[in-house]
TrEMBL record:
The N-terminal domain determines nucleotide recognition and specific binding, while the C-terminal domain determines the specific binding to the target protein. It comes from the Archaea. It comes from Thermococcus onnurineus (strain NA1). This is Probable molybdenum cofactor guanylyltransferase. The gene is mobA. It is found in: Cytoplasm.
């Protein structure tokens, strides 16, 4: 399956382009990609970028798709599904657990549902760590026509398989860790920059 890494955001909370921020000398997005591509079920990683980020991201050697919609993750998922079924993640997830990715993809193939998404017992879902089929494109198109851009709403309309997070190994939860603010770097054991 394709692994699609979303990279069309504006890093407003972080300030600057968080995906290019170097952690141990390597841009954040490359930490994410390397974790994702080490999952056995991932055949190829593609980056779904905003037009302004595309050129720089191409230098990393992965296929870059340009998201022309820029209406949030739903537009990135839409762009990725143009290539085929995809496991979609955010670009700011440097702690992805490859075994968890494989688990979700296998469950997705077995279930034959449009989407397979992890869900907490409280009902919260993790749509940027989920498997999507091309069959989901119709629903996204409907939502775009309605100007409804919340991916959560699109998923609610689909034939979905939910994976209860509390039922899989506790360590897999680390997979959802994502960098939103400079302060989050501390959780990676990196001192927050002084400036
Ligand atoms: N392709 C694409 N990716 C997006 C879009 N909006 C957000 N993303 C990506 O989705 C992931 C999760 O989004 P956020 O954590 O909100 O990142 P962000 O939007 O850059 O950050 P904020 O501006 O602070 O919200 C990140 O990897 C973003 O780059 C979009 O419109 N298109
Ligand atoms: Mg955002």
């Amino acid at each position: 399956m394709i692994g699609a890494v979303l990279a069309g955001g504006r890093s407003k909370r972080f300030g600057g382009n968080k995906l290019l921020y170097r952690i141990d000398g390597k841009p954040l997005i490359l930490h994410t990609i390397e974790r994702l591509e080490s999952a056995n079920e991932i055949e190829e990683v593609v980056i779904v970028a905003s037009p302004e980020n595309a050129e720089k991201l191409k230098t990393f050697g992965y296929q870059v798709l340009v998201d022309e919609l820029l209406v949030g993750p739903i537009g990135g998922i839409y762009t990725a599904l143009g290539l085929g079924d995809a496991f979609v993640t955010a670009g700011d997830m440097p702690r992805i657990v490859p075994e968890f990715v494989d688990y979700i993809i296998k469950y997705f193939h077995k279930s034959r549902k449009a989407v397979c998404v992890p869900r907490w017992i409280n009902g919260h879902i993790e749509p940027l760590h989920a498997a999507y089929s091309m069959g989901f494109l119709d629903i996204i198109e409907e939502q775009l026509a309605l100007e409804e851009y919340m991916i959560k709403r699109a998923i609610e309309k689909a034939n979905v398989c939910y994976l209860t997070i509390e039922k899989v190994p506790f360590e897999w939860r680390e997979s959802f860790f994502n960098v939103n603010r400079k302060d989050d770097l501390r959780k990676l054991g990196i001192p927050e920059p002084l400036v």
